[in-house]
Amino acid sequence: QVQLVESGGGLEQPGGSLRLSCAASGSVFSIYSMSWYRQAPGKQRELVAVIISSGGTNYAESVKGRFTISRDNAKNTVYLQMSSLKPEDTAVYYCNANLRSSVTGPLMIYWGQGTQVTVSS
């Protein structure tokens, strides 16, 4: 059973920084990609950032230059370093992973439970 657990959310002032972590545990053979999504109240879920197995990354236009996604392959963990935070960044942030749970298994998508990020004075 694969689980994704997010951590690092909280309350921060505009202009501040937070770092989110997401650890994949259980039967994880290999990870193709890990992503961060966010959803604010009354809004649709949106992709924030993605990192693929090669190390390549992509970001939503709204966070480019402010957020950085990275990973620690040995720990099956992805991070989202958030800087220059804005009130518009307030949302529940969800971790997503596309991975194989075994050498012969297919790629599957998994979701974490989410962590709240609130940016407010």
Describe the structure.
The chain has no helices and 11 strands. Helix content is 0%, strand content 56%. The protein is mainly β. The strands form 2 sheets. Strands 2, 4, 5, 6, 9, 10 and 11 form a 7-stranded mixed beta sheet that branches. Strands 1-3-8-7 form a 4-stranded antiparallel beta sheet, with no helix packed on it.
List keywords for this structure.
121 residues, mainly beta, 0% helix, elongated
List the helices and strands and how they pair.
Layout: E1 3-7, E2 10-12, E3 18-25, E4 30-39, E5 46-52, E6 57-59, E7 67-72, E8 77-82, E9 91-100, E10 107-111, E11 115-119
Parallel strand pairs: 2-11
Antiparallel strand pairs: 1-3, 3-8, 4-5, 4-9, 5-6, 7-8, 9-10, 9-11
Poorly predicted runs are none
Residue fraction in strands: over 45%
Shape: elongated
Biggest sheet layout: 7 strands, mixed
Number of helical segments with 4 or more residues: 0
How many β-strand stretches?
11
Mean pLDDT, all residues = 96
Approximate helicity band: under 10%
Radius of gyration computed on alpha carbons: 14 Å
Distance between the termini: 40 Å
Order of helices and strands: EEEEEEEEEEE
* Structure class: mainly beta
